[in-house]
Amino acid sequence: MKKLDKLILKAFFGPFILTFAVVEFILLTQYMLKYLDELVGKDLGAEVFGELLFYFSINMAPVALPLAVLLSSLMTFGTLGEHHELTAIKTSGITLVRVLRPVFIVVSLITIGAFFFNNLIVPKANLKAYSLLWDIRQKKPAMNFKEGAFYNGIPGYSIKVNKKMNDGQTLGDVMIYDHSKGGSNTTVILADSGEMYMAQNDNYLVLELYRGNTYVAQGNASFSSTSNDQFVRQQFDISKIILSMASFNLDRTREELFSDNKMMKNIDQLTVVTDSLRRHSKREVTFYAPSVDPFYSYFKADTGQVKNGFRLLGKSVDRKLAEPSESVLSLATNKARNVKSFTSSYLERIKNTVREANNYEIEIWKKYTQSTAILIMFLIGAPLGAIIKKGGLGVPVLISIIFFILMYVMAILGEKWAREGLVSVGAGLWAGNLILLPIGLFFLYQARNDSSLLEVDFWRKLMARIRRNKL
Fold first, then answer.
1. What's the sign of the alpha-carbon dihedral 333, 334, 338, 344?
2. Which of 2, 67, 264, 300 has the fewest C-beta atoms under 10 angstroms from its C-beta?
3. InterPro entries recorded for this chain (predicted)?
4. Contacts (Cβ under 8 Å, ≥6 apart) of 193
């Protein structure tokens, strides 16, 4: 490797690592904000949060790479142009294409690696991330006693604390309804004060109550204001109640239950599902005619010679047959409505199958288009940086955001049109890249000719050629 290549690569890798980390952090933060309400207040611990963030960061990597390459390319070649290093290289006889070659090779390797990463690693990370997120959603919020309100988070118990000291463990005026043995309020515990603490690695909650009474109903009695049934009262100075905290644990669901989702499959698995759905939709279309046939009624009319009749298809038909009664019209109307309702539901079912097949095929093409977008963003960023000659995080960030939004909007529109069947799935997913590719080639052409951003000498060359032809 020549010294020039080392210089260019060294100038590129620093901004690339920095911008990738920043973009990954921003995208991950924006994505996790959607689930913030479901994550806080459940006492998950740093380990669970770290695991969830790690898996979702893998999910965000294919989206972050194109923007990171675009921004780092702009910064790298903008800084080289701003410090006149790019000018010195060109004056020594080295073309811009030769300067871009080492970074182009590295970006090509990143593109290939991103494709395999997106196809093999991301589906497994999605499976673990979304299964963990599901378990977190099902987990109960952390235990929190509020003064003057009943807490029903522990199965079989309703606990009310009227006073709670600043240390969070000392309680005053405690009331406990014990439903653990069934029935309605069969056991009630009243205490003047108490303390609570965890035991055995936070697996059990111990309520140590002082100076109170336990009321146990007899038979099917209940503690209502109108009940005259008897109950047993037990007075105590100290009483301990040990409550299991198993219901607050994070129970993990088997990951196989989530594996049918399209985000958890690679290209081969997505292709199998897509082909199956396509065949099923085509088969449903062929079954429509036999399915709708029973809704029609067929009968043979007597077309013999009838007095006061008229000729129909060469046969005499009674005039009364030509004037259907109200019952016949009502029957025909109902049958038409039934056919229309059946056709609408049948068509909607076929559309849903086609839409689902499009969703799976979209996931296939996204693995290709997201990887190719990395190379296209380099073709835009590197020549544009050489043209504007501005490094740092100012102008490059602004330009990068504009092109990233443009790419993102076109990707969303193409995906939506492909899902609804307005365009083919391949055309919808590749449209954004195919639109941005000529822009990148135009920037490369301008940078190679040392032209400004919007300076196009096409008309000047055309007029010069016309003059030479006249001469």
1. positive
2. 300
3. LptG/LptF_permease
4. 170, 171, 172, 173, 174, 209, 210, 211
Q: What is the mean pLDDT of residues 246-266?
A: 79
3-state secondary structure of 184: coil
Q: Is the pLDDT of residue 219 over 80?
A: no
What is the length of the chain? 471
Question: Torsion over CA of 450, 452, 458 and 460, rounded to 10 degrees?
Answer: -90
Q: Are 130 and 63 in contact (CB under 8 A)?
A: no
Q: Which two tokens stand for residue 296?
A: 């029609």
Exposure string for 360-376, b = 16+ CB within 10 A, e = fewer: bbbbbbbbbbbbbbbbb
Spatial separation of the C-alpha atoms in residues 471 and 468, rounded to whole Å: 5
Q: Per-residue confidence at 361, pLDDT binned at 50, 70, 90?
A: very high
Q: Write out pLDDT tens, residues 74-115.
A: 888 888 888 888 888 888 888 888 888 999 999 999 999 999
Inform me whether the pLDDT recorded for 311 exceeds 50.
Answer: no
Q: Which helix (H) or strand (E) holds 414?
A: helix 395-419
pLDDT for the residue numbered 459: 53
Average pLDDT value for the chain: 81
Contact call for residues 129 and 117 (beta carbons, < 8 A):
no
Kindly report, residue by residue over 163-182, the tens digit of the pLDDT: 888 776 788 888 888 877 76
Nearest to 39 by CA among 134, 131, 154, 123: 134
163, two tokens: 């006073």
